[in-house]
Amino acid sequence: MPLYWHLLKTVPSMQIVMHRIVWSTLLVVAGLCLTQGLAWLRIAMARPKVAWMLALSGVLIAFNWGLYIWAVNAGHVVETSLGYFINPLLNVVLGVLLLRERLSIAQWVSVVVAAGGVLWLTFNYGSFPWIALSLAASFGFYGFIRKLAVVDSIPGLAIESLYLFLPAVAALLWLESQGAGGFGSQWSWQIDALLVFGGVLTAVPLIGFSYAVRRVPYSVVGFMQYLAPTLQLLIGVLVFGEVFDRDRAIGFTFIWIGLLIFAVDGVVRARRAAPL
């Protein structure tokens, strides 16, 4: 994701977000309509509380997209990775406090160790990591709502995208009329193609995430999500040349140790359960 959005750094961040909304909505809704007609919409909206829950999740993911794209193109890739390191911890907290999921002793140890790394980074980062905390909170509560919403992953993504579709189209048309846009005119065809394909890049991971989040414990989802920010951190440091000093190395090391403890405990528990 950071590498892809960096290719679009000449496009204003909010316009990238609006294009993400438009093209991902068209892709997902068209696919559903071709395969199921409008049955998916009637079934999903007939379920209690789904309509307002998906409206809220749509707002949360749009905010998350906008902040993330802006941060990447403003040179804060390392801080975005910190946000997605904090996010799994928030998922664990939500799973335990709100969903009453239970953790083993080893899992609790891993949470405490990883939380220590997050606290270290927070107090030694050099400035208050508002980007990281905002990304963690918005995506954490997005996943929490999608876990509670009784709707299949693809229809759920389609509905939450439809809530944002018309405002995004209206905003893009207004920008074009004011000469502030550039799709199909000022920007190159390569930029236009990247914006359109951004819909695919947006839809596929969210479909996978929504599918998985309803089928495994939320606390496990949280710790698996340490993989993505690790890759983002490496991109920020090795590709974009952002700072990664001793204090950050200490904090990230604690987080990785916590992840390792959690992963080893998961393997051991799975092997014990296999004969049963």
From TrEMBL:
The lineage of its organism: Bacteria, Pseudomonadati, Pseudomonadota, Gammaproteobacteria, Lysobacterales. Keywords: Cell membrane, Membrane, Transmembrane, Transmembrane helix, Transport. It is found in: Cell membrane. It comes from Pseudoxanthomonas gei. It is a multi-pass membrane protein. It holds the Pfam family EamA. The chain crosses the membrane at residues 20-43, 50-70, 82-99, 106-122, 128-145, 157-175, 187-211, 223-243, 249-268. Belongs to the EamA transporter family. Residues 6-122, 131-262 form the EamA domain. This is EamA family transporter RarD.
